[in-house]
Amino acid sequence: AAGTVPRRRSPASDMVRGLPLLLLPLALLVAPARAEGGTAAAEEVQIEVLHLPEACSPKSKKGDLLNAHYDGFLASDGSKFYCSRTQNEGHPKWFVLGVGQVIKGLDIAMMNMCPGEKRKVTIPPSLAYGQQGYAQGKIPPNATLIFEIELYAVNKGPRSVEAFNQIDKDGDKKLSEVEISQYLKEEFARDGKKRHPSAHDEILADIFKKNDHDGDGFISAKEYNVYQHDEL
């Protein structure tokens, strides 16, 4: 549907849908940002600040969990191809900044933005849908896009140091199956959703399959991919 255009979708399986935000990036592979064509380095996102609140803190950075509304327009004729307010019962969108969950241009455009800020941004094709366009979203090839964005919240993201430490109960700077298993149980109990009894084991196995790159039975800080170059 056209309503999914700005968000990048990963090939999620049914068993991980509805996972708590903190664990979701562990269970799913993040799709690479789409920046097609060879001119990305020469093109930039143009940012116009429409409203800046007096209190501008915290400013968004890579790895933060953002909550925002945005409308998308084709620069060629001004036609609207996306409106987040008409999706998901009008709720603002949640996504992690800078990891490819939205098009590359939006990842760039929403850096150093504060809650309550509004921006109008112009994104070149190389930082959007490139030479191929996105027919499902009614975006033609080589389309320059304009987004009007209103940011509501900036929170610590799922791959933050705080999240890692919350799971790492024994403080050894690596996550064991026991620690992640316990965390899954706590999160499942907290959200109260009904799941098949096998879901826990399947999700746990999937997390280690996708994150335990050296196969040692632990997920290190590097494998967990803590953002922002924070020290653990």
From TrEMBL:
Entries under InterPro entries matching the protein: EF-hand-dom_pair (IPR011992), EF_Hand_1_Ca_BS (IPR018247), EF_hand_dom (IPR002048), PPIase_dom_sf (IPR046357), PPIase_FKBP (IPR052273), PPIase_FKBP_dom (IPR001179)
MF terms (GO), sorted A to Z: calcium ion binding; peptidyl-prolyl cis-trans isomerase activity
Keyword Isomerase listed: yes
Pfam family, any one: EF-hand_7
Keywords in alphabetical order: Calcium, Endoplasmic reticulum, Glycoprotein, Isomerase, Metal-binding, Repeat, Rotamase, Signal
CDD domains: EFh (cd00051)
Record protein name field: peptidylprolyl isomerase
